[in-house]
Amino acid sequence: MKGKKWIGLILFLAFIGFVSYSIYSSQQEEVTATVRTAEVKKEDITEKIVTTGIIEPSESQQVFGQGIVSELAVSVGDSVTEGDTLVSYVNGTSFEAEFNGTVTEVNIKEESNDTSAQQGRASIVVENLNDLQVALQLSRSDAGEVQVDQNVTMTYNDTEFEGLVSKIDPVATQQQTQTGAATLLGATVTFDSDTSELIAGFEIDVDIIVDSQKGVMVIPVETLNYNENNEPYVYIVNEGIAERKDIKTGIQSEAIIEVQEGLSDGDKVILSPSSDVKDGLEVELDN
Question: How far is CA 252 from CA 44, 48, 153, 163, 245, in A?
């Protein structure tokens, strides 16, 4: 019986030893984390507002007539010269083109009563399709960064066009969107290059350059963390130990952000740190 007790005791102690070792091993694994890092370095950085706009004619004339149409001189697609007669009415009223352009709408017929205004549309529309611009609708956050004369890059069917913000509306208006009503501020972008391959009415991708810096310290956006006061910080690796660094940031592109204070050129910052990464944690580099 004594022999069986000793065997049982030995097995029990072996079990306790195994459990203790397992716990110790798991704890050792928990206090060491494998991380990826990126090096703090100096680069040029450009901050952009990325949005879309609608290509539209730079000039548009809407004719609103009344009465019987005695003579209709144009049809859709006609080119007109400033001063050309567009339409005449029995009451003696006539309308002329205000600029060189293209007739894009005709909603009346000769010898018929013009009821276009009652239907909420123009009798005739003339537009300048040789001089196009882009209409933007800016959100409140974007509007605070956009200014007249900022450079703009636009992309249409993989072709890039350069331009400038030429006008910003003085007041915002409420617009209906797919998700409901939104308050938006209108702005206009003019082209610096030929627009002959563009078609009015289509969307165009717009990048507004709101700021740029040359040769400043930057880090990947994915290294950032924020505290309860929405203040940014990162973790660097210092001799195999994670070290928290509070930082001051500047302008931001899609992938990188300027660091104005808190880091040094060459520091290794931890990419996408998990919640396990804490100040003082022992880390191993995966890259």
Answer: 11, 8, 17, 22, 19
What is the token pair recorded at 166? 């030429």
Strand-pair category, 32-35 with 282-285: parallel
- The two tokens of residue 176 are 């209906």
Task: Give the strand pairing for 225-226 and 232-238.
Answer: antiparallel
Q: What is the pLDDT of residues 215-272, one digit of tens each?
A: 999 999 999 999 999 999 999 999 999 999 999 999 999 999 999 999 999 999 999 9
Type of residue at 133? Q
Pick the closest to residue 266 from 42, 35, 36, 34 (CA basis): 42
- DSSP reduced 3-state for 30: helix
- Which residues are within 8 A (CB) of 175 and not within 5 positions of it... i.e. 6 or more apart? 137, 181, 182, 183, 184
* Contacts (Cβ under 8 Å, ≥6 apart) of 167: 148, 187, 188
For the chain, the 3-state helix, strand and coil shares in percent, each to the nearest 5, are: 15, 50, 35
What is residue 130's DSSP assignment? T
User: In this structure, are residues 151 and 191 in contact, taking their beta carbons and an 8 Å threshold?
Assistant: no
Nearest to 167 by CA among 196, 146, 197: 146
3-state secondary structure (DSSP) of residue 165:
strand
Residue 155 β-bridge partners:
160, 205
Residue 11's H or E segment, with its range, is helix 2-30
